Amino acid sequence: MGKSKNSDASFIMQGSILAIASIISRIVGLIYRIPLTAIIGKTGNDYYGTAYSIYNIILIMSSFSLPLAVSKLVASRMGNGRAKDAFRVFKGALGFAIVSGGLGALLLYFGADYFTGTLLKTPLSAIALKVLAPTVFVVALLGVFRGFFQGLNTMMPSAFSQVAEQILNAIVSVVAAYMLYSYGKRVGAVLGDADAYAAAYGAAGGTLGTAAGAFLAFLFVLFVYLVYRKRFKKRMRRDHHREQESYGHVLKMLLLTIFPILLSTIVYNVSTLIDQGVFKNIASLQGYSAKQISEWWGVYSGQFIVLTNVPISIASSLAASSVPSLSTAYHAKDFDTVNRQISLATRFIMVIAIPSTIGMAILGRPLNLLLFHDGDKTTMMIMLLGTISIALFGLSTLTNGLLQGIDRMKTPVINAVISLLVHVIALFLLMELFDLNIYAVVIANNIYGLCVCILNDLALRRYSGASVNLQKTYIIPLFASIVMGIGVFLSYELVHKIINSNAIATILSICVGVLIYFVLLLLMKGLTESELARMPKGNTIIALAKKMHLLQES
Q1: Which of 463, 514, 454 is nearest to 484 (CA)?
Q2: Dist. CA 167–CA 515, nearest whole Å
Q3: Cα atoms found within 13 Å of the Cα of residue 197, Cβ hemisphere only
Q4: I need a labelling partner for 159 at 20 to 30 A (CA). Which of 194, 221, 436, 531 fits?
Q5: Cβ distance 197 to 185 under 8 Å?
């Protein structure tokens, strides 16, 4: 029993470390998008978002699934005491990353004009996309190192490298965007469209930060690996298994693990490209101007997605950290631990995603005013309609990782394909029959997330037998979030009316919301003392809660 508790504590702790790093990275990413958007504008955000959409697909195809696959294979071998085979997985994965990352970078660079101009009708995005191309190769290598350490059940190298990557990304992106925006304006003046070229070159400056950040993160994990290598060699010397896996077998296992994750992730992310292609082509046929279409997509990709991705990133981090420990428990046939960790992870996500959904919906307009100086009604409606995606995509991302952790590799792929088909049909009908323009994209996105959630939940119940406590997982966080939402709305309106400052009213209402939610969650026993103790700084939170008489002595 003690071992199980330690396993659960490690599971949540490691997931929390990666989640905290992801939150910090997303916040840094959100902060730097404020000056970046001010520099390149909504049109520049369109170019930036278009380049990133294509980059993400090529990245996914070449290397995005490597950290998860490597961590799973390394964890299963280390769990069986086969350190030498785990190291062979690492070396085999590095060879694979060099080939796949190199091919991906070449495809992205030489195909940039076709992808942006012919497919997505945004030809000036090719400038930013070509700047991004070498990043694919660096990220492939980086992913192998991160996966290796995650397979050893330590998230610290991944967490620290992620934060360092984003900080440098932020600095370089803003500086480079400012410099290249001015350069693009001069180029555009000669070519007859100063504003468009300024936005395009500014967007390319933003993507230059991504390349610089990825290179710094790679150097960091390489340094950690070189320091750790002697210690790992000692573990290999204690491995007395005579038979070792051949590199051919390692490559085969790597491909068998990567392929389902790859398909699932491609389907999961290709929806953005499909959305953009369908939306821009149909909106153009419906008579909307290219400038209007570009601004709509700039708000959706550069503001809405950036804001909602902050809480969703927690699910991505917990999903990544859950795979090695779940895989170890599953292969050891410790199904009690498997079921308990699935339940814990789901609760952890919902406790964060549900209040984030309601809070973001209420403060959508104030946040966009504060961060992007955008109080437009269209932006407000996008936020109101779309923030449910925080809860839906948070849960669907997590359940993808949980299914992969119990060796149901094909299931997320099948579920994602079914959901994507429903999504595309819904998007087409919403645009053609109801002429909902950008709102159609938002609603169809919600439908996609809901379908994945339902199908993944049914699969998890079927293959693991895991069940969640409905009251603690959904009902208590939802009730506390609704009360919190009312408090946030009233506090914002009151403070704004008294001092007429959107910034102060927004910040104070967020603080009020956090306090209300925290108090209600503990009073309703949504989290217990033992669960809080498993989280980073859990003892500090417990001490504070007891001082406020929100938590009884256990």
Answers
A1: 514
A2: 29
A3: 13
A4: 531
A5: yes
Coil, helix or strand for 81?
coil
The amino acid at 370: L
Please name the residue that has the structure tokens 């001069």. 186
Residue 459 CA to residue 170 CA, distance in Å, equals 39
pLDDT in tens, 343-377: 888 888 888 889 999 999 999 999 989 888 888 88
Q: Specify the pTM.
A: 0.70
Q: In which band, very low, low, confident or very high, does the pLDDT at 2 lie, cut at 50, 70 and 90?
A: very low
Alpha-carbon gap, residue 426 to 245, rounded angstroms:
48
Q: Which position has the token pair 């603690």?
A: 472
C-alpha distances (whole Å) from 534 to each of 341, 345, 537, 540 are: 12, 12, 9, 12
Residue type for position 328: T
Give the C-alpha separation, 141 to 387, whole Å.
34
Write the CB contacts of 178 (distance below 8 Å, at least 6 apart in sequence).
39, 202, 205
pLDDT digits (tens, 9 = 90+) for 447-458: 999 999 999 999
Q: Mean pLDDT, to the nearest integer, of 120-136? A: 88
Q: What is the pLDDT of residues 159-216, one digit of tens each?
A: 888 888 889 999 999 999 999 999 998 988 888 888 888 988 999 998 999 899 999 9
Task: Find out whether 19 and 163 touch, Cβ atoms under 8 Å.
Answer: no
What string of H, E and C letters represents the secondary structure of 297-365? HHHHHHHHHHHHHHHHHHHHHHHHHHHHHHHHHHHCCCHHHHHHHHHHHHHHHHHHHHHHHHHHHHCHH
- Residue 525 backbone class (left: φ over 0; alpha: ψ -120 to 50; beta: rest): left
Residue corresponding to tokens 């708000």: 299
Task: Pull the structure tokens for residue 402.
Answer: 């949980």
Residue 117, judged by CB atoms within 10 A of its CB (0-12, 13-18, 19+), counts as middle
**Cα distances (Å, whole numbers) of residue 390 to 45, 340, 449, 516:** 21, 24, 9, 20
Task: Please tell me which residue, 264 or 360, carries the higher pLDDT value.
Answer: 360
Handedness of CA 95, 96, 101, 106 (dihedral sign): positive
Nearest Cα to Cα of residue 439 among 378, 364, 374, 355: 378
- How high is the pLDDT of residue 323? 63
As a whole-number percent, the residues of the chain with pLDDT over 90 amount to 30
Contact 281, 431 (CB under 8 A): no
DSSP state of 124: G
Residues in the chain: 554
Where do runs of H (alpha helix) occur along 238-288? 247-285
